[in-house]
Amino acid sequence: VTNNPEFGHAAAGHAAQHADHHQQAAADNRTLGIWIFLSGECAFFASLIGTFLALHTNTAGGPTGAQLFDLPYTGAATLVLLTSSLTAVLGTVALQRGNLRGLQAWLLVTAFLGVVFLEFEGFEFYSFWQQGLTLSRSAFGSAFYTLVGFHAMHVSFGVFWLLSLLFLTIRKGLNVDIRSRLYIAGLYWHFVDVVWVVIFTVVYLLGKVG
Amino acid sequence: MAETHERTVHGQGFYVGFGVLMLVLTLLAFFLVGRHVLGAALVVPVLLFLALVQVVMQLWLFMHLDSGRRVFSLFFLFGFAVALVVSLSVWYLVQQSA
Questions:
Q1: Which residues touch A71 (CB under 8 Å, ≥6 apart)?
Q2: What is the ipTM of this complex?
Q3: Residue B79 and residue A43: Cβ atoms within 8 Å?
Q4: Residue A175 and residue A169: Cα distance in Å, rounded?
């Protein structure tokens, strides 16, 4: 935090306080913005999940979910993503304690786990494609790749976001502005994780049950 | 300024315990399906219940991580309600037409 009451005379202190208020207002706007954005994202994923529920039985003679899905594999990917959500929280705890090194370490671990999850997804898509499920093979294929693919795109964007904030903290350290940026990136990451909880239940587990 | 910021609600141990609980619930869901523990009629509502518990727990936790104005997170509940209505009503419509 830039405001240091022991430093300088009253005018300088006042200017610093003013700057702090300004940054706090920007941080509040940002927090409000991310919640409204995530609210819209909820509706976005709900419509994709609804579409999947409507179309998942229309396999048009192509492979079905029950044939394709490999539960231990999806389970491993799920554990990786859930763990990344936990490491993101530990990063937030480090941030609240002003532990810059800890925060940077957790950011790096979280982004790394995100990349591992994306590798799982990539190999899974490749395997399904080899087994004959393409985007245009059936309505099930279109709905599956659109829903899970959009989720993977969100994870990719999150990895990029977390890494860019990691570089920002390396260059500039922590202040009110960077704290609020880290905070909203964390919320985004948790949201993407919550969406995956719904996807692995509705798409994979219920798909396997039939 | 200080009172709206720097609010550590829980320690690391709390979050680690919470995370482990999440992993256990997830493993349980995969185990139920993979080992065919429950009948087809029972397993669907149990899975949906487990997912709902996880989603609500995660949202509750992360909405309370807020470092600023917590009231903002209420906007999210609106989107969440819309999401529930959209996905469940599409499901219902499909069930009806099938």
A1: A204, A205, A208, B30, B33, B34
A2: 0.83
A3: yes
A4: 9
